[in-house]
Design a protein that fits this description.
single chain; alpha+beta; 5-stranded mixed β-sheet; 4-stranded antiparallel β-sheet; 10 helices; 32% helix; 20% strand; metal-binding
Length: 577
């Protein structure tokens, strides 16, 4: 093997512009925040100090070897081997991303050393870029160049001498300033005196010369400078496949940030709308509340004035009555016959007049004031508001019933009517919520009431429906506030269910049956040529449309056909065309 003297591609390069050598993300441990000390590279590509990793709490996991193979048919021997393959695996969690890190047999110290991080730490440790770094050969002068083959930092004088020597004249010299690789040679962990310059393809790891003649004797090995292109290209290929994902993820995160920003703006805008709406609605509700309270106060004043007026009138009438009664009693008990006769005319006239005075023994007003919180009360400040105060009171004696089914109904068919609730003045209540009770019972089965449904139309009317199961006479009771309304109770005659026509409403049998000879009609008409049904202008045809099953002329009517099954099948043939 001969080592080609070429600069290792991808491992020597200038730092990007604007990137400081003392970048804390490259030189400081994310766990202890100090400069890296023996940094280890984790499988998740995060670098942590060896000491920090050793301080992490390990945990045990079960490592199943060969879990992807199908072993269901291998027999008990393989199953025994499989049971032995379940080995406990020690792991830790990355302190940066919490990824699981399965530790190798040697523990934390067996993890890969991050030499790149060690080089960055060395760069940051320098006072300047190359200030303070002395030549590796003479040890006196300041470093200017670095031999990429010898991995030695040289001063200007030693660099000239290095180039004049025959063995080192072809070595690549690079200016130390502005480059990121100034570390010393990486030595073999198994042979500390030897530098890692070779690469074992079989074991896929760098080795030294002693490794090649020992453990890796028959393994394919080559100098790192010769294999770096192949392995570097494979890494670059993976990098090219990864970079689009980075760009896609950055784009996705940018969209998420933009969506989050738009979401925050939208939330703020909607919150402002909610606050504006709520504040306006609160003002509208408060204004509506004040109106309702003012209306309630006016109702109170009106009712109290009416009560005070009635009270004053009754008190005056009572005083007049007492005066007349007291005077008359005194006259009858203490007056002489002549005195009674003399004053009789005045007393009789006064008492007669008092007896003729009309008055109500009940208060002229009542305390009926009702608040309906769910009743629409129009709009206030542009908002729909609810809640209305009403002094109306339903009067059962003024409530009326309307509907076609008040007198008759059919069995197993829904019968209905409408209840109109009104107040004492005969005015519609205009609202719902009243206590309505409807009872429908057959006269011959008082203990078997029919189920009824009362639908509140919210406008003072109520839709009542029920379905009688049998024919007969039924009694219907409609009560409002436990009092019968006008016309309640009343009776309903339930007849048998309306019979629909099994035939067809046609002009003639010949037309409706498509010329079938065996089709018949209830009208009894026939046609020459063996036709058993009627036809236009032929014997028995009624001269107008009629039902084939019963012969009725009215299309919307009840069927009265009472023939047997055989006749029914014959007549029904006219239905199928």
């Amino acid at each position: 093997m001969s080592e080609k003297r070429k600069p290792p591609l991808g491992f020597v390069g200038k730092l990007p512009s604007g990137t400081a050598l003392g970048n804390s993300g490259k030189t400081h441990c994310p766990s202890c925040m100090g400069l890296f000390k023996a940094p280890r590279l984790l499988p998740c590509l995060h670098t942590v100090c060896t000491t920090c990793l050793e301080q992490l709490e390990p945990f045990s996991v079960v490592d199943i070897r060969g879990g992807d193979s199908d072993t269901s048919s291998e027999g008990p021997i393989f199953q025994e081997l499989e049971a032995q393959s379940l080995q406990p695996q020690i792991g830790i969690l990355c302190p940066v991303c919490d990824a699981q890190v399965d530790l190798p047999t040697g523990g934390v110290k067996a993890l890969t050393i991050d030499h790149l991080a060690m080089n960055d730490v060395m760069l940051e440790s320098l006072p300047g870029e190359s200030q303070g770094l002395v030549c590796d050969l003479c040890g006196d002068r300041e470093v200017e160049k670095r031999c990429q083959i010898c991995k030695a930092n040289l001063c200007h004088f030693c660099c000239q001498a290095h180039r004049r020597q025959k063995k080192t004249a072809h070595h690549t010299m690079v200016d130390l300033k502005g480059y990121s690789r100034i570390g010393k040679a990486i030595l073999c962990p198994a042979h500390p005196a030897e530098e890692l310059r070779l690469f074992c393809e079989l074991c896929d790891r760098p080795v030294c010369r002693d490794c090649v003649v020992g453990e890796h004797r028959e393994h394919p090995c080559d100098f790192t400078s010769n294999v770096i292109h192949k392995h570097g290209d494979s890494v670059r290929e993976l990098l090219r496949g990864t970079q689009p994902h980075v760009e896609a993820l950055e784009g996705a995160l940018a969209q998420i940030r933009e969506t989050h920003r738009a979401l925050q703006e939208r939330v703020e805008a909607v919150a402002a709308d909610v606050r504006t709406f709520s504040e306006g609605y609160i003002k509208a509700i408060e204004e509506h509340r004040d109106r309702l309270l003012k209306q309630l106060e006016d109702i109170q004043v009106q009712k109290e004035n009416a009560l005070q007026l009635q009270k004053a009138q009754l008190e005056q009438l009572l005083a007049d009555m007492r005066t007349g009664v007291e005077f008359t009693e005194h006259l009858l008990t203490s007056g002489s016959d002549l005195e009674i006769l003399i004053t009789k005319g005045v007393v009789v006239e006064r008492l007669t007049k008092l007896n003729q005075v009309g008055y109500s023994a009940r208060p002229g007003v009542n305390d009926r004031i009702r608040f309906s919180p769910r009743e629409k009360a129009g709009r206030c400040r542009g908002y729909e508001v609810y809640g209305a105060i009403s002094t109306q009171e339903v009067d059962p004696a003024k409530c009326v019933l309307q509907g076609e089914d008040l007198q008759k109904a059919r069995e197993k068919q829904t019968a209905s009517f409408t209840l109109f609730c009104k107040d004492a003045a005969g005015e519609s209540m205009g609202r719902g919520g009243d206590d309505i009770r409807v009872t429908v019972v057959p006269n011959d089965k008082k203990d078997s009431p029919v189920r009824t449904t009362v639908q509140d139309n919210k406008d003072g009317t109520y839709y009542v429906s029920y379905t009688p199961k049998e024919p007969g006479v039924y009694t219907v009771l409609v009560c409002v506030k436990e009092q019968h309304v006008q016309g309640s109770p009343f009776t309903v005659t339930v007849r048998k269910r309306h019979r629909s026509h099994p035939g067809v409403f046609h002009c003639c049998t010949f037309c409706s049956s498509g010329g079938q000879k065996t089709a018949r009609c209830a009208c009894g008409g026939t046609m020459p040529g063996g036709y058993l049904g009627c036809g236009h202008g032929h014997r028995g045809h009624p001269g107008r449309p009629h039902w084939s099953c019963c012969g009725k002329f009215t299309e919307k009517s009840e069927c009265t056909w009472t023939g047997g099954p055989s006749t029914a099948r014959s007549l029904l043939r006219t239905v199928a065309l």
